[in-house]
Amino acid sequence: MEYGEISKEIWDRILSDLSDPKVYVKSILDKADGVGLSPHQVPVIRYWLIDNDEYIGTLGLRKELTSEIIKREGNIGFQIRPSMRGKGYGTKILELGLEKAKEVGLESVYLNCSKNNTASKRIIEKNGGRLLSTSIDSVSGEKSLHYVISF
């Protein structure tokens, strides 16, 4: 699975949550406040990118990181709907996410993407991402790129 793709398990959970929008929104707000997280999770603030009342994508911002999260997810993760990719929305959502990161007091953010995900790589680099390292997942064998953007 490439960065930016969502697993069937996550889609199933999202669709289940969406059957009751109040429950879905409450779960997002709870995660931002750190409520109900498992021991390996940290709070994540969720933002949606909407254009002319149409859902484009989502961005998650983590103010806190663990050593595992910094390797796998970083401070920011984003996804754009497949039908909206290639239209500049990825660059825009990351640009807006970086503004939010500054607002919450971060001086730099860490981002990761699959080495094969050239679109995410380009978006991160266009927004000032500096490659720190590469790694290989011990389970999947997939190569990941690890970036930092400093303000």
Note the topology.
Elements: H1 8-18, H2 21-33, E1 45-51, E2 54-61, H3 67-72, E3 76-80, H4 89-103, E4 108-114, H5 118-126, E5 130-136, E6 143-150
Antiparallel strand pairs: 1-2, 2-3, 4-6, 5-6
Name some characteristics of this structure:
about 150 residues; alpha+beta; Aminopeptidase; three-stranded antiparallel β-sheet; 5 helices; about 30% strand; globular
Overview of the molecule:
The chain has helices at residues 8-18, 21-33, 67-72, 89-103, 118-126, and strands at residues 45-51, 54-61, 76-80, 108-114, 130-136, 143-150. Helix content is 36%, strand content 28%. β5 (130-136) and β6 (143-150) form a beta hairpin. The chain is built from five helices and six strands. The chain has one domain (8-150): Gcn5-related N-acetyltransferase (GNAT) (Aminopeptidase), CATH 3.40.630. The strands form two sheets. The protein has a three-stranded antiparallel β-sheet, with helices on both faces. The chain has a three-stranded antiparallel β-sheet with strand order 4-6-5. The model has no long low-confidence stretch (mean pLDDT 87). The chain is of the alpha+beta class. It is globular.
Q: What value does the average pLDDT take?
A: 87
Query: Largest beta sheet: what is the strand line-up?
Result: 1-2-3
What is the CA-CA span between the terminal residues? Answer: 30 Å
- Beta content comes to 25-35%
For the record, the count of structural domains works out to: 1
Name the CATH homologous superfamily.
Gcn5-related N-acetyltransferase (GNAT)
Task: Give helix % range.
Answer: 25-40%
What is the rounded Rg?
Answer: 15 Å
Note the main sheet: 3 strands, antiparallel
Indicate the overall shape: globular
Number of distinct beta strands: 6
Spell the H/E element sequence.
HHEEHEHEHEE
Number of helices: 5
Global structural class = alpha+beta
Classified by CATH, the class is: Alpha Beta
CATH architecture: 3-Layer(aba) Sandwich
Q: What is CATH's topology name? A: Aminopeptidase
